[in-house]
Amino acid sequence: SRTLATQERMTEMKVLGVSGSPIKNSNTDRALRAALDATGCETEFIKLTDYTVEPCRACLGCVKTNQCVIKDDGIELAEKAKAADALVIAGFTPYSSIDARTKAFIERLYPLRHVHGFMAGKPGGAVITHAVPEGHESMPPACQMGVNAIQFFMMEEGMNFIGAVTIQGNVPCVKCVYGDECKMSGIAMLHGPNATVDSVGIKAFETQTVAVEAAKELGYRIAEALETK
């Protein structure tokens, strides 16, 4: 058990959670919040749709200043990541890779690495929502590709990657109205020719016991890493 001094120090630690999901209160958001809540630390939740973040231009204009030359919200978000004691990045996998908002955010943390390595040593984690069922032999491993995008970023920055939460999400076709008749429907592609909107249903984070427990565990483990840091 933690001593009172340790508990007080932990409440002073800050964990930043960043979600690339564009959907309001999405599965991705709720899983990220569950992980943040489990840390017992001060937390901040960032929704990237509330910000304007251009991708990195690869110009190296940030080398001497550790700050991007692009004058948008990416500078503010990088400063938040720099100030935080831990970082959890949450995204989803359109076209079987990490979504564009999350990728742009990751790229804009590049200025923090030069000379000082401001992210090095910080605990980090990933939350990934994916629609491709795991083990689907004829489809790309979307879930793992999403995790890899975040994990390998953290590895390259010298961070301590703690783990990932993966959630079975919803292919957009279940909500578009034409899911049962469109010849390009992802429902049949992912779940078989006889699958329908009704048979597939809407998947929620809270009904996925393994994912819920994984989110809590990620939070606990980040707290443990901060406690011993």
Overview of this protein structure:
The protein contains eight helices and five strands. Helix content is 37%, strand content 16%. The model has no long low-confidence stretch (mean pLDDT 95). The chain is α/β, with parallel strands linked by helices. α4 (100-107) links the parallel β3 and β4. The chain is globular, with a radius of gyration of 19 Å. α2 packs parallel to α8.
Q: What labels describe this entry?
A:
single chain; 229 residues; 5-stranded parallel β-sheet; 16% strand; globular
Brief write-up:
With 229 residues, the protein is of the alpha/beta class. It is built from eight helices and five strands.
Layout: helices, strands, pairs:
Elements: H1 4-12, E1 14-19, H2 27-39, E2 42-47, H3 74-83, E3 86-92, H4 100-107, E4 123-130, H5 142-156, E5 160-168, H6 186-191, H7 197-200, H8 209-228
Helix pairs in contact: 2-8
